[in-house]
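Exercise 7.
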Amino acid sequence: MTPIERAWYRGARWLTLLSPLEALYRHVVKRRREAYRSGRREVWQPPVPVVVVGNLSVGGTGKSPLVAWLVRWLEDNGWRPGIVSRGYGGKADTYPLSVSAETPVAQSGDEPLMLAQQTGVPVAVDPDRSQAARRLLEWSHCDILIADDGLQHYALGRALELVVIDGARGFGNRHCLPRGPLREPLQRLTEVDAMIGNGGLGSLSDTDAEGVPRFTMTLSPTAWRHLKSGVRHPVEPTPFALDAPVAALVGIGHPQRFFNTLDALQIPHHEYAFGDHHRFSAADLPVGPTTVVMTAKDAVKCLDFVDDRCWVLDVEAVPEAAFIDWWRARVDEWKLRSH
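Solution. The predicted structure, written as tokens, is:
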């Protein structure tokens, strides 16, 4: 976590010095939102439903595991989903980029490649998500699109907006950038279709977005995967020795979540936290025989230099039953309209 991120979540008083910049940021955000609402900026509405899974704050909240869960549910229920993403951290020669399990991570970015590997559905990346959606519909037979992030990408029309909230960190000091972690004011929550708290909703007050459905989800470890061989093992007992602390390498938005998971599994570890979307190299691996554990998002960036010490903890989203019922009702509505 960077110094300013620590300040956001600890409520540092010196952040009040950034109030003028926050006011300017909020003004720009408001003007931009109004431009799309008024028609001064074009919104492309795809011929299929688009579900945006996003967040209101900077940093990781658990969006990508929920995207993977939605995709699997849709496939199990007869849909042909595809995923669109900005591809943060990647740089392709041309866009839109079609992402497969073999696409170089330097081109696709870590999250799109991870989702392509986990789900096997068509994935398209473009800084202009509406362009990614257009091409995905040309390339494939998708009848529904899931946008990984993109809550603020108003050029892409959407049928549903899901906001994922970090149950532990919440919205920090509840101020917008750069005074706080919010990309948009909290009032934006009143416009979304549902809020999903990853690990609970204790960070929300009763008056936050009254009337908007609230649900919870958890991230559940499913397997240890040997990164070099791809062989999967049960979470318990661990497939590696625990006679010494393992090295936990993390480059995600909220690394403490991974460390807390290791604590819950009673795995002693040394913490090595890097910035979100960190480009790992062999120099980041600890010297010696230490076992190395990491997230699936980080693992896709380490395939070219890993050794036999490296393990991945795969996790999946587990939404509460009430969300599944709510989600099924929304999807059934789209199915009725299409016939």
